[in-house]
Specification:
CATH superfamily of the largest domain: Thiolase/Chalcone synthase
Shape: globular
InterPro entries: Thiolase, Thiolase-like, Thiolase_C_2, Thiolase_N
Organism: Desulfatibacillum alkenivorans DSM 16219
Radius of gyration: 20 Å
Largest sheet: 9 strands, mixed
Number of helices: 15
Keywords: Transferase
Oligomer: single chain
Order of helices and strands: EHEHHEHEHHHHHEEEHEHEHHHHEE
CATH architecture of the largest domain: 3-Layer(aba) Sandwich
Strand content: 15-25%
Protein name: Acetyl-CoA acetyltransferase
GO molecular function, one term: acetyl-CoA C-acyltransferase activity
Structural class: alpha/beta
């Protein structure tokens, strides 16, 4: 089986684009990746296209990838449409990786493109509920509500009721954050510190949706969403696209200007039926990835973690093995996760600041890790970056993600 390399990366700045659509954003990201790899469209042998809401918003179902790619002159090759909630783009990369690894293709494209902003704000926010069990939605929300109310915490009386004017995922994250605060003593101040760190990282990233710094105090004083989350701790609604081109070792040897990054592990899985104290999906999958790559958490130079809220980062620090379970907050306080620290996390600004167009986010993580391992990240460059980890979760069933992909990349 061939080793697999990333040879092309493309991404447009995430943001709110009233005059752009899924198709033209995908075109831009793919063209940037082709240019980065010094390849022509005809060199691609397969494509994997990630999108979540195009069908819901504009009735484009079923053949999304074929519509987007044929309209830019990429035809004849097999195109696979990928829909896996927030983990769609990383799943597309995983499928491209498996195709190369199996020897079916020598060069394949993974691309994610998403438009979520809408003049109808309620439509945008309501769409996220489709990333849960729709038929069991009311039962799920009832369980989250009961769980949230069972914790020994002082919750502000003016806290907004569940689902009020926001993505339902903010309520899910808030519930899990309250559990962690109740069990381990983590604090809202620690979440504010994480968000402040990511705002600083985002200020150094020209492709981030938010590029302004915020102090922990400013994060805490931002508009409340649902306790303990404030607006600055949560990923914004936005649009964007990102792409990666992967190839076999034999194909790589034919290239003269390649700046490859090696994929040393690509793991994909789904959540399980468990309670809050059961084995987490992230723990289970990352240990598999570490075993495949033959490394430990201490070997990771930097990571992009799925921080749809600041609590997401705190939790994944523990799940990925960067610190002990229950220590995500104190570990963040040490400065280890900040640029210049032991293991910088979300140097792109993360979902909180780089942005989170669902079907593109996983490949935006890969763009950041790849850029860092190539030594091309400019002011946010991690010195001596050798191995990067990208963890991308998607959807929610029960008390964890419905889907997740973890990739480990290595500098060549």
């Amino acid at each position: 089986m061939s080793n697999v390399y990333i040879i092309g990366l493309g991404m447009l700045r995430f943001g709110k684009y009233a005059d752009r659509g899924v198709r033209d954003m995908a075109h831009e990201a793919v063209n940037l990746a082709l240019q980065d790899a010094s390849l022509d469209k005809k060199d691609l042998q397969a494509a994997f296209f990630s999108n979540t809401f195009w069908g819901m918003f504009d009735d484009q179902h079923s053949i999304k990838g074929q519509v987007a790619l044929r309209s830019m002159g990429i035809d004849k090759i097999p195109v696979t449409n990928v829909e896996n909630a927030c983990a769609g783009a990383s799943t597309a990369l995983h499928l491209a990786y498996t195709g190369i690894k199996a020897g079916m293709y020598d060069a394949a494209l993974a691309v994610g493109s998403e438009k979520i902003t809408s003049p109808d704000k309620a439509k945008s926010l309501g769409a996220y509920a489709a990333c849960m069990d729709v038929a069991g939605f009311e039962e799920h929300i009832s369980k989250l509500t009961s769980l949230s109310q069972s914790f020994q915490l002082d919750i502000p009386e003016e806290d907004n009721p569940m689902g009020a004017g926001r993505s339902i995922f903010m309520d899910a994250y808030a519930t899990f954050a309250r559990w962690h605060m109740s069990k381990y003593g983590s604090t809202q101040d620690q979440l504010a510190l994480i968000a402040s760190k990511n705002h600083w990282h985002g200020s150094l990233n020209p492709l981030a949706q938010y590029q302004m710094t915020m102090t922990p105090e400013q994060v805490l004083n931002d508009a409340p969403v649902t306790y303990p989350l404030t607006r600055a701790m949560c990923a914004p609604v936005g649009d964007g696209a990102a792409a990666a081109i992967v190839c076999s070792e034999a194909f790589l040897k034919k290239l003269t200007e390649a700046r490859p990054v090696k994929i040393i592990a690509s793991v994909h899985g789904q959540g399980s039926e468990r309670d809050m104290d059961g084995e987490d999906i992230g723990e289970r999958l990352v240990n598999k990835a570490y075993n495949i790559a033959g490394i430990s958490p201490q070997d990771v130079s930097l990571a992009e973690l799925h921080d749809a809220t600041a609590y997401g980062e705190l939790h994944q620090l523990e799940a990925m093995g960067f610190c002990s379970v229950g220590e995500g907050g104190p570990w963040s306080e040490t400065g280890a996760t900040k640029l210049g620290g032991k293991q910088p996390v979300n140097t792109s600004g993360g979902l909180e600041c780089r942005g989170h167009p669902i079907g593109a986010s996983g490949l935006a993580q890969i763009f950041e890790i790849g850029t860092q391992l190539r030594g091309e990240a400019g002011k946010r460059q991690v010195e001596g970056a050798r191995i990067g980890l990208a963890e991308n979760g998607g959807g929610n069933i029960g008390v964890e993600e419905a889907a997740m992909c973890i990739h480990l990349l290595e500098r060549v």
